[in-house]
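mind reviewing these tokens:
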Amino acid sequence: MHVVAVAHQSLLGNCMCIAEPSPLIYYALILLDGESMLTYEPSYHCLGCRNYEICASCAAIGLYCLDDSHSWIMREIINGQLSDIGSRVRAEAARNVSTEAKKYPSKFRPPQTTADPITLFAEEHRFIRRSDAREILIYTSGTCLDDSQKNPKGGCAVIFRPAAYTERGILTHAEGFMFPLESKGPTGESHTATSLRAELRAVVAALQFYDWSLDCNRSWRSLVIATDSEYVAANAPEHVQQWEARKWKLPLPPTGPQEAVFVKNQDLWKLLLKEIRGLQGRGLNVAFWLISKEMNARADAMAKNMAKLDSPPEFSVTIPAGSKATKRVPYQRDGAV
């Protein structure tokens, strides 16, 4: 008998975890008397596609193939046979597979650490993953001039598609939008402008701009936020769950003052979770990807231009106003933030 370890990528190429296979999701290919048998943990199999399956871990944040009319079944090896377990997941339920993992965003893991958005995402009517036609990318950036000074001013930018022009150079589709950071947050409370707040605010604006779960005839099942903000890209998938569980209080230090310290910008963090959970409930996963400033240069430049302007007082939402324009509308508070 010869046992060979086979990475998750080679068997489940459509899984989200192929970029960084977990040891828990590795498979073993067992060669016995010239025959082979795959042993692996339970996974979801599409009943409408050939050899299309997603592991249980990835299904927690998105169960989909190229056709939303397909149903699914979970299978595992039992006594050497690939067997169905549980009941069939019908098409209408597959889009909204709900687990605890879906309450929070995930971390985007590129197939190589050197990968960049241009090589992974094609510039079409959206930035669409070359290896997954149902995943799109949006660039966001936020900045602040005179940060920590007397009169700081912030700016935010979002790029969700390549700009399009006619043969005469006339703009037909704008690439995104930009705006100066508001003085007030979604709760109506005033906040001092900082780079961190502007970076987080840009992501919130990207998610509020449009219901991406309905975009292009409900084509997308995964949305990747590409940002050069480590503050956002690290905290959103890794720490916000702990913050919420502690009622937005930071852990007390082992020594020194034992006063509770609250998470900064929690009004925006709460709104971010609200927007993400709304999309997740409609079948669209949201992931965060930390990219370099060089990869995000265009959005950074747009944000810096907005930081030169005076801060508007009221928190607003940017929405589409045709293919070339956007408009700002007042944010409607509903008590959820």
Summary: The two ends are 59 Å apart (CA to CA). DSSP finds ten helices and 19 strands in the chain.
